[in-house]
Amino acid sequence: MHMDLDTFFVSVERKMNSSLNGKPVLVGGNSDRGVVASCSYEARKFGIHSAMSMRMAKQLCPHAIIVRGDHEQYTKHSNEITEIIKDTVPVYEKASIDEFYMDLTGMDEFFGCYKLATELREKIIKETGLPNSFALSSNKTVSKVGTGEAKPNGYRRIPNGEEKNFLAPLSIKKIPMVGDKTYQLLRSMGVEKIKTMQEMPVQMMEQVLGENGIMIWRKANGIDNSPVEQYSERKSISTECTFDKDTIDVTYLNAVMMRMTEKLAFQLRDEQKLTSCVTVKIRYSDFNTYTMQARVPYTALDHVLIEKVKELFNKLFQKRMLIRLIGVRFSHLVHGTYQIDMFDDTTEQLQLYQAMDRLRKRFGKNAVQRAAGMGITTRDFNPFNGISHDLPLKNKK
After folding, report:
1. Closest by alpha carbon to 3, among 117, 171, 126, 159?
2. What is the pLDDT of residues 271-324, one digit of tens each?
3. What is the rounded (10 degree) CA torsion for 18, 19, 22, 27?
4. Phi and psi of 91, rounded to 5°?
5. Which end of the chain is more exposed for a tag (fewer CB within 10 A), N or C?
6. Which of 13, 93, 99, 240 is catalytic?
7. Is residue 127 flagged as an active site residue?
8. What's the CA dihedral at 326, 339, 91, 15 to 10 degrees?
């Protein structure tokens, strides 16, 4: 089962303000340099889509209502729905803030998968007031495509053995992994419908797109053996720095924390993860250790996380004693595609993050860094997580 919350941000705003119902609504930054984070179906009729510049969106639909957005409310509602799903199904995977996979294997024997799915959908609507769509099939890919076809606020079941027939008449753009560039390449080859790709030799797809071509061909044929990965909020990534010489230099400490946060935030984006909990740890020269944490809206952005880390450090650093160790941890992780805070940031900032990440992937994690953290490399930090593969080395300063 794949479930997606329809126009999630807009739905939450409409729940808080019913006057937005039935009107074209844009959630995002209000300035011309802002970006559309989400838009209602009424706005989509004008050609508006997420990640579009707000300036263009306003040109396409001048009478659209623009709402700045409240990420804390979105996270709160996402957590409420997660709890409902957790109490209902045996195994679930939280793919993003508004998207879930559920493994209902074997439930037909006891309850009925379709009955369970429809009752879960109705329960979420009743308890949260938020519309959602779902699809049932034999695997994750077909279910995800099916949910897209069931929207808005609908549901669909694709029987076992009917996967290829269901996918065949759809556009190749419906296949997960087919982005704009891949779509244009395949269209130039005369491939428009999934049925055409189903009939192509897999060797041809591999020749054109490499290993990704094989994966896309398998998805087009309704083949996907990837499991539903059990969601656990205990998963985290963290890093620590033990100083060879205890220090009270706040400027240096801030620089170290900035580099730590930059490193972990890049790992989040590289692994397509988002965090909603930040923890800062301090160990003083007397070996007393203190930690403080705070929940944040799901994010993987340096500047958002750096601000929260500094805020926690300033609250925690009260003893004014020499510090032996500091650490930063991100927890309550969920899988999520690369996202930017579209309420405060601009298209230029989105492009800047993407450019920095490309440079880091090509030339190394230290290729780009903020001036305040210059001279402090990520190799100086001890990683304690399942994502980083750096060697644990002590700070050399």
Report:
1. 117
2. 888 888 999 999 898 888 899 999 988 888 888 899 999 999 999 887 778 998
3. -90
4. -140, 130
5. C
6. 99
7. no
8. 110
